[in-house]
Amino acid sequence: MPASSTPSLPQQHIQWEENGEQRSARWRSEAGMPPPKRVVIADDRTNADVAYRLACEGTALLWRGDFQNARQLLQALARRADHKGRTGKKAKPAKAPSSTTEAFHLHRQAQSQRARTLAMLLIPFDEGYTIPLRRAPDVKLACNEAYGRYEEPFIASMRELLGLIGAHEWRRTGVEIPALGARIHPHYGVFSPVRGEYVQMVADAPLPAGVNLAFDIGVGTGVLSAVLAKRGIKRVVATDQDQRALSCARENLALLGLDQQVELREADLFPEGRAPLVVCNPPWVPARPSSPIEYAVYDPDSRMLRGFLDGLAAHLTPGGEGWLILSDLAEHLGLRPREQLLEWIASAGLKVVDRIDVRPVHPRASDATDPLHTARAAEVTSLWRLAAV
């Protein structure tokens, strides 16, 4: 799934009182969370139960103690947010949702509340992305990759920092892609191709006769462009609106030696012209993202999906095909019925040539404790081969 473009966030500041003085610093949140209005100082003496109560009330804790102790406190907050508490016993279960759609919305609501609570533990950053805390790690490279060049001191959440560190490790080690016989290295904020079944479908689906040009709509990490190029398509034009995605794809294609074969363009959906093959893997769930990073997963009002379908016929050469890679998870969640998708395909002047289906193999599909297990267990990912009528 591609990383969709989101507007840059305006610079904000956070205020707090410390040692009898009013202080202020730049606030950073890649999740788009506003700066907390209430901030207290916390350190190694701060009790986890007190910290959790304050966080739930919307009071942030600016950490001045040992960095590793802050990590432990965040873990303690996460346990409490997951209703485990000190005793390890789960809270009394709530009433079961009446439908998978309600289960989805309740799950998203719980995720959002959990994220807000855990984001209340704050870490200071000084010159050159140094953290002025005991036993703090060197995070300069991870921060440079996510934030870009250092500009000024700022405050960010501990949870976001750990996400940056995790993303740096993903980028360093990469994700093995069997269809390429190589690794793809996702950047921070760009969706990682961990769902390998859809990549393999693009590697295996029959190509239209004589195809020597393809469009990849929403390039993301560049994985599908790389697969198409590896299949012998002489030229691939790949688009995305997100600068992180374009940078990520450029780096991956260079590492694979395919940068001369794939041309990257900043565009909303289609490049100019027509091609005998146009491939798109839009975000699969028609719901509102709760943070900019989630635009790779959630497609509000199916905007990207409908935009692809509506514009596809005008960008296909005679006899060409459009490949739509789409999970039916939204159907099982009651968010978008199959009939609606078929109606959109027909109204765009398209017909279904074939559909290739595969069952997902990711761990959540077999996790009975997942709140959305019923929908995930029934999920099928499809490659829809579409042509102009």
Can you walk through the features of this model?
- Helix content is 33%, strand content 23%.
- The protein is globular, with a radius of gyration of 23 Å.
- It contains 12 helices and 15 strands.
- The chain is α/β, with parallel strands linked by helices and 389 residues long.
- Strands 11-10-9-12-13-15-14 form a 7-stranded mixed beta sheet, with helices on both faces. A 6-stranded mixed beta sheet has the order 1-2-6-5-4-3.
- Residues 2-7 and 84-89 have low confidence and may be disordered.
- It starts with 11 loop residues before the first strand and ends with a strand.
- The chain has 2 domains: 13-84 and 99-169, no CATH class; 175-388, Vaccinia Virus protein VP39 (Rossmann fold).
- The protein has helices at residues 48-56, 67-81, 100-118, 140-147, 158-173, 196-204, 223-230, 243-255, 303-312, 329-332, 338-347, 373-378; strands at 12-18, 21-27, 38-42, 59-63, 121-125, 154-157, 175-177, 182-184, 213-217, 235-240, 262-266, 275-280, 316-327, 350-358, 381-388.
Keywords:
N5-glutamine_MTase; 12 helices; alpha/beta; 389 residues; disordered N terminus; 23% strand; Small_mtfrase_dom; S-adenosyl-L-methionine; Methyltransferase; six-stranded mixed sheet; protein-glutamine N-methyltransferase activity; Rossmann fold
**What class, by secondary structure content?**
alpha/beta
- In what range is the share of β-strand residues? 15-25%
Shape summary: globular
How is the main sheet built? Answer: 7 strands, mixed
Task: Give the distance, in angstroms, between the N- and C-terminal Cα atoms.
Answer: 27 Å
**What count of structural domains?**
2
Sheet with most strands: strand arrangement: 11-10-9-12-13-15-14
The CATH fourth-level homologous superfamily of the largest domain: Vaccinia Virus protein VP39
Give the CATH level 1 class of the largest domain.
Alpha Beta
CATH architecture of the largest domain: 3-Layer(aba) Sandwich
Mean pLDDT: 92
Helix run count: 12
Overall strand count: 15
Per the CATH scheme, the topology name of the largest domain is Rossmann fold
Helix content: 25-40%
Along the chain, the helix and strand elements come as EEEHEHHEHEHEEHEHEHEEHEHHEHE
Radius of gyration: 23 Å
Low-confidence stretches: 2-7, 84-89
